[in-house]
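Board notes, transcribed. Complex of a protein with heme C.
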Amino acid sequence: MEGKKISLFPVIILLTTLLVVSVFFYKLAFGWYPAKYTESAHVGVNRSTISSLGYAVGNCVHCHEQHASIEGSSHTPYDFSLFAPNNPDSQTANFCFQCHKGAGSVQVGGITNYTFSKNFGGGTATFTTIYDAFNPGIEPPASSHNLADVLNRAVSKAAWLYTANDNACIVCHNPHTAQRNYPVTVNAMGGVNTAVRKPGQHDDADYNLWGDEPKATSGWNEMMSDWTANYQAPYRVGKTTYEPAGDQTTNGSNLPCFVQTCRPWCHRTTVYSTERGANLEPINWTNLTSEPGTRSAHGKFANGLSKTGGWTIAPYTDDDTRNYVLSCTDCHEPHGSTNEWLLRTCVNGKDNISITEDGRWYEFCTACHYVKDFGSNHETYVDCSGCHGHNTPYF
Ligand code: HEC
Ligand code: HEC
Ligand code: HEC
Ligand code: HEC
Ligand code: HEC
Ligand code: HEC
């Protein structure tokens, strides 16, 4: 017995060394951390129609039917062996809505998902499911990302390798690796648990999550603080803590860099919007005139307009030398909003923002600004959109 223990010892040392060395070389070769299913939020999948059959919670079978012979299924082989049609670009019947909706969700116990405004801004809940966010049903002025537009755009970039049969949600989420992102949890690599992937990393970097590690590890600007040193996190409701975590971190080191997920290919140039029935304008968040679109003061451009009138409010200072750079998610929801243009309902600690008519942004902009009279009755304008917006010189 004793002899056996001793002879095993060098083997264990050898195996441990091999493991450490291979992980080391793997890191050298790839840099980024390949996310695992076992660390994803979907280890909680539990489909009600099969939960009594003895499958462990988290088993792939809660989404895929290997044999199409499971009780309660339609016995029809759907794309990717899913238990229901993928309906890749349907706004209402998308496969993911089998669980991520209210009444009729097949997840045992159902799932509640809130907006960015609530989870990270601390605001009042507007939607409680992903289905509701994509189908806000209060038109106008409510808005949502059109899933067919999202998928079309992704498919149109050949190098991304999406096809018309892929699910539109997977352009921003990998169903096999997406992590629970709320409450914000800083991980061992110094990134955060994150639900999103970069749309362009569908191919070789399929298992990279966006925001789970800082640039120092992956070589990419995955955190907002990697992309700019000039990020200032907005307040959460209460105005004593900051987004997204509700703590004192303000430099964006706990926020995935959404500028890098929203802009490349999708919002760097014009993209068609069914909701608007028109092309959306390009968003230039850089300081480069060579990029499409007008450079924005909310991005890396210091537009030289004077803030000496005290036009930004805390936590932003009126220091003209401080060129603040905002995150797209400081103003926009990713899925849908009761406001137009996916504009958030809770911004910089100001809650229940309601934009009742096209272009009436006074309530919204005053979450971060004083809007004073510039000598032209500025505060009495009702429609701000004629002079303000991404592609005006005053944004
Ligand atoms: C939350 C639901 C869900 C769970 C759980 C899930 N999958 Fe999937 N899987 C999908 C969806 C949706 C697709 C189709 C993606 C698309 O539209 O391209 C897919 C696609 C696949 C594919 C096709 C190749 C690819 O990656 O696109 C494979 C293989 C696969 N899943 C394996 C697994 C395995 C193995 C497990 C368990 C460890 C698992 N899946 C768990 C939803 C799920
Ligand atoms: C254009 C990109 C995009 C698309 C398309 C998209 N999402 Fe998201 N989703 C995001 C971003 C960004 C977040 C992280 C911010 C957040 O949690 O609000 C997120 C967060 C989530 C979350 C976590 C919400 C929570 O409670 O924190 C769920 C669940 C989710 N998405 C499901 C879906 C489903 C289902 C679809 C398709 C019907 C979908 N998403 C399509 C960008 C997208
Ligand atoms: C069989 C049910 C089921 C299906 C189908 C399903 N999900 Fe989920 N999803 C869940 C459960 C359960 C969770 C974990 C919820 C929790 O932790 O509270 C979850 C969590 C998530 C999260 C992380 C949310 C968070 O809390 O931060 C994302 C993102 C997500 N799902 C996206 C998708 C996408 C995209 C699809 C379609 C490709 C999909 N889901 C299909 C059951 C499902
Ligand atoms: C300071 C708040 C704010 C920030 C930050 C912000 N947006 Fe916007 N966005 C708006 C407002 C207001 C509108 C509606 C006016 C307009 O069209 O420009 C809008 C409209 C848009 C449109 C539609 C443009 C059009 O008119 O066709 C897109 C696309 C967009 N935003 C993407 C982004 C992206 C991508 C980012 C991050 C790089 C971002 N936004 C950051 C406030 C913001
Ligand atoms: C989340 C906070 C936030 C929101 C919401 C916001 N802004 Fe700003 N805005 C800022 C900050 C911070 C600056 C300063 C940027 C800099 O330092 O370069 C700024 C700068 C500007 C400037 C340039 C002023 C100058 O002197 O450089 C204009 C114009 C402007 N915002 C208009 C708007 C309008 C119009 C809205 C509403 C549609 C809006 N902003 C919403 C935070 C915000
Ligand atoms: C007729 C054009 C016009 C209209 C309409 C207009 N603005 Fe402005 N606004 C301007 C100009 C020009 C500036 C830049 C002034 C400067 O700093 O030199 C400005 C500046 C601003 C700023 C930035 C202040 C700062 O320096 O931080 C905000 C915020 C703002 N406007 C909000 C609004 C809101 C809200 C509305 C609608 C209620 C609105 N504006 C309507 C022309 C307009």
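Confidence is low (pLDDT under 50) at residues 1-29. The pocket of heme C (ligand 5) is lined by residues 234, 297-298, 302-303, 305-307, 312, 316, 322-324, 326, 330-331, 347-348, 361, 364-365, 367-369, 384, 388, 394-395 (CB under 6 Å).
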